[in-house]
């Protein structure tokens, strides 16, 4: 597919279309409070770290969000167990306090449903790496949401992260894209994203009854949601897998 990949800073007129792509994110994911409050700020405050891909007709078919942050000054550059939520919080704290960033973290790569299966996610990852390199960075880190893990919600994430095929590449397709691009799997972010809500909210988000205590397997969730019907709430703590790209 013919693609034109630019930053949003270069093409600000695409800010509306980039939000209108046909997506398949599970509804509950949209209720992570950190993401809900900060994802839009990447577009508003850091458009040079937003990549937008258009096809030959000019339609937006993919987007990629990343953020710069001062990682090495925090625990010597150790990647946080808080994963996705934590790097978003650090990035906007650094921006507010004027801290000089030394690393770029990937946040999201989304491909329109009509354009999936054509290798676009890998091209967006390559463009994200190149964008970071062009801005003087030597490293991109990524709290990867393994895109086949939801098929095995009961599988331990630490085992899944290290699972490989016969050719030595990761079992998970999205992890394979990262490794083929030069990334190295480093660790698991066991509490990368947290979504909590009342049992009524979970019923609305998933269509499931949420009336029994304990783990509930939810379509699209990487691990079960913990349900406490007597107390009226459910909590989902999503693990991601840290991948480090040296540029």
- The helix count comes to 7
The structural domain count equals 1
Return Rg in Å: 18 Å
- Major beta sheet, specifics? 9 strands, mixed
DSSP strand content: 25-35%
What class would the helix/strand composition place it in? alpha+beta
Name of the level-1 CATH class: Alpha Beta
Estimate the mean pLDDT confidence. Answer: 97
Low-confidence stretches: none
β-strand number = 9
Order of helices and strands: EHHEEHEHEHHEHEEE
CATH fold-level assignment? Aminopeptidase
Report the CATH superfamily.
Gcn5-related N-acetyltransferase (GNAT)
The backbone outline, from C-alpha atoms, is globular
Percent helix, as a range, is 25-40%
First and last CA, distance: 26 Å
CATH-defined architecture: 3-Layer(aba) Sandwich
Structure, described:
- The protein is of the alpha+beta class.
- The chain has one domain: 3-Layer(aba) Sandwich (Aminopeptidase), CATH 3.40.630.
- 28% of the residues lie in helices and 28% in strands.
- The chain contains seven helices and nine strands.
- Strands 1, 2, 3, 4, 5, 6, 7, 8 and 9 form a nine-stranded mixed β-sheet that branches.
- Strand 8 (225-228) and strand 9 form a beta hairpin.
- Helix 2 (33-45) crosses helix 3 (83-97).
- It is globular, with a radius of gyration of 18 Å.
- The chain starts with a strand and ends with a strand.
- 38% of the residues are buried.
- The model has no long low-confidence stretch (mean pLDDT 97).
């Amino acid at each position: 597919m013919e693609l034109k990949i630019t930053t949003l800073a270069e093409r600000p007129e695409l800010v509306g279309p980039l939000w209108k792509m046909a997506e398949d994110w599970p509804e509950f994911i949209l209720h992570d409070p950190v993401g809900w409050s900060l994802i839009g700020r990447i577009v508003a405050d850091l458009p040079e770290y937003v990549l937008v891909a258009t096809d030959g007709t000019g339609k937006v078919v993919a987007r990629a969000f990343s953020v710069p942050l001062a990682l090495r000054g925090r625990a010597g550059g150790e990647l946080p167990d808080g994963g996705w939520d934590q790097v978003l919080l650090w990035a906007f704290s650094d921006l507010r306090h004027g801290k000089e960033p030394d690393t770029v973290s990937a946040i999201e790569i989304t491909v329109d449903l009509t354009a999936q299966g054509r290798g676009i996610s890998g091209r967006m990852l390559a463009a994200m790496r190149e964008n970071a390199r062009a801005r003087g960075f030597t490293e991109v880190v990524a709290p990867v949401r393994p895109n086949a893990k939801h098929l095995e919600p009961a599988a331990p994430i630490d085992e899944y992260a290290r699972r490989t095929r016969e050719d030595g590449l990761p079992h998970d397709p999205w992890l394979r894209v990262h490794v083929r691009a030069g990334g190295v799997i480093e660790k698991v972010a066991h509490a990368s994203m947290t979504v909590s809500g009342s049992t009524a909210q979970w019923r609305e988000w998933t269509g499931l009854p949420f009336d029994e205590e304990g783990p509930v397997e939810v379509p699209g969730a990487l691990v079960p949601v913990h349900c406490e019907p007597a107390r009226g709430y459910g909590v989902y703590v999503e693990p991601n897998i840290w991948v480090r790209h040296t540029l």
